[in-house]
Specification:
Largest sheet: 10 strands, mixed
Strand content: 15-25%
CATH superfamily of the largest domain: Isopropylmalate Dehydrogenase
Order of helices and strands: EHEHHEHEEEEHEHEHEHEEHHH
Structural class: alpha/beta
CATH class of the largest domain: Alpha Beta
Bound molecules: 3-isopropylmalic acid, magnesium ion
Number of helices: 11
Distance between the termini: 20 Å
CATH architecture of the largest domain: 3-Layer(aba) Sandwich
Radius of gyration: 20 Å
Length: 353
């Protein structure tokens, strides 16, 4: 197969970790006889510096025309001025929205060799295997009106949480489809005891459930879901939730796996084109030092092969190489080890064949 992959290294540790993922993808292409082309483009703070925009038009156009997009991270203290007109994060949000990538898949599993790396008790972690499906292009992240104003000398700010039934239906449907290939359980997370948009979310989820009689749906309020994630994470199979709840819960869930650095994500829409990125951020404190964990990005590359190129065997080959590397002691600093970024990438490469 011949395909072009857009690389968006971005800011902070982004370039270092994307480099390792690219090496792994190139090795896979060679081994399975595919022709993968890579095109690098700007996003985030580096794009603001070069063009004044967080997502230059050329980047969005290149992404839209490619088969899949692999992103490192955006943001950093250099662009953190709260009064700045343009912020790196806007680039990421514009990309998700511009390509209508409404379903964000964030798998969380616990590698048996890393149960000790989590601050949670190891016995609570065995068998944890969760897929968080986060709505990504609506909710409070995108709702309008959104503004700041001064009323009688007092400044106030307004954000709007809005969901239409169509937006809820399409993402909940994705969650049910995924559950069909797993343990057939969906937990829909909301705040229906307070929010009108959550009450709509709940009723639409109930409707979708009727088309999937083999899947068991339960509803849970986000506060108790947050608690259950650290007390009995094993109970979860697929979690589906709105944009902001999903943002928060997926970081929380990552603690189960031992490190944010390990976890990949896929953002999917109605077509095969998807955006793949590790769920961690740009980690400016360690940028440029060659010590960041590239495994979350490498695993995101595997998700790209699976979901955008339909190359499941190739994706599995990467995933099992990562699994073996971790099994055999590949530990970057976030996992209590001393391995650098390139060495961790090499550990995966060595186990590919
Ligand atoms: C994430 C990040 C982003 C989000 C930020 C960088 C805008 O936290 O992908 O989870 O909130 O969606
Ligand atoms: Mg987040």
């Amino acid at each position: 197969m011949k395909a072009t992959i857009t690389l968006l290294p971005g800011d902070g540790i982004g370039p270092e970790i994307v480099r390792e993922a690219r090496r792994v993808l190139e090795a896979i292409a060679q081994r399975f006889d595919h022709d993968l082309l890579f095109a690098e483009h700007l996003i985030g703070g580096c794009a603001i510096d070069a063009t004044g925009q967080a997502l230059p038009e050329a980047s969005l156009a290149a992404c839209a025309q490619s088969a899949g997009i692999l992103l490192g991270a955006v943001g950093g203290p250099k662009w953190d001025d709260p009064s700045a007109k343009v912020r790196p994060e806007q680039g990421l949000l514009a990309l998700r929205k511009g390509l209508d990538l409404f379903a964000n898949l964030r798998p969380v599993t616990v590698h048996p060799a890393l149960a000790e790396a989590s601050p949670l008790k190891a016995e609570r972690l065995a068998g944890v295997d969760i897929m968080v499906v986060r709505e990504l292009t609506s909710g409070i992240y995108f709702g309008t009106p959104r503004f700041r104003e001064v009323v009688e000398g007092v400044t106030r700010a307004v954000d709007t949480m809005v969901y239409s039934e169509d937006e809820i239906r399409r993402v909940v449907k994705v969650a049910f489809q995924i559950a069909m290939g797993r343990k057939r359980r969906v937990c829909s997370v909301d705040k229906a005891n307070v929010l009108e948009s959550s009450r709509l979310w709940r009723s639409v989820a109930d409707e979708v459930a009727k088309d999937f009689p083999e899947v068991r749906l339960e509803h849970q309020l986000v506060d108790s879901a947050a608690m259950r994630l650290v007390t009995s994470a094993r109970d979860f199979d697929v979690i589906v939730t709105g944009n902001m709840f999903g943002d928060i819960l997926s970081d929380e869930a990552s603690v189960l796996s031992g490190s944010l650095g390990l976890l990949p994500s896929a953002s999917l829409g109605a077509t095969r084109l998807g955006l793949y990125e590790p769920i961690h951020g740009s980690a400016p404190d360690i940028a440029g030092q060659g010590i960041a964990n590239p495994l979350g990005t490498i695993l995101s590359g595997a998700m790209l092969l699976r979901h955008s190129l339909g190359l499941d065997a190739e994706a599995k080959a990467i995933e099992s190489a990562v699994f073996s590397a971790v099994q055999e002691g590949c530990r970057t600093r976030d996992l209590g080890g001393t391995l650098g970024t390139a060495a961790a990438g090499q550990a995966v490469l060595d186990r590919l064949s």
